[in-house]
Amino acid sequence: MLLNAWLRPLVVGLTIFLGISGGSWALTHWLSVSIQSGLETMAGLTVRIEQTRETMTEIEDTAWGVTPRQIDGEWFVGLPDGTLDHPP
Predict the structure, then answer these.
(1) How far apart, in whole angstroms, are the C-alpha atoms of residue 47 and residue 40?
(2) How far apart, in whole angstroms, are the C-alpha atoms of residue 87 and residue 42?
(3) How do residues 22-37 score in pLDDT, each as one tens digit?
(4) What is the C-alpha to C-alpha distance for residues 15 and 10, in angstroms, rounded to an integer?
(5) Which long-range contacts (CB under 8 A, 24 or more apart) does 22-30 make?
């Protein structure tokens, strides 16, 4: 009789414990995969940003003073100082 009195609470307690443990493990695993994916994406974007900066530097060095400018979200070509607005 004493065994039956403890059996049901033991099974319920173990089930709750395993459910909480399994859920915690799954959440931790999902978060670690998500963080790792974010770090890999950030590293890839950092490399692309650096490549773009190098390209922009190369363009600025070889463009004879012509510079790209952003005004109100739109890109324009800026001519060097001393150029005529309407050349002959």
Answers:
(1) 11
(2) 46
(3) 999 999 999 999 999 9
(4) 8
(5) none
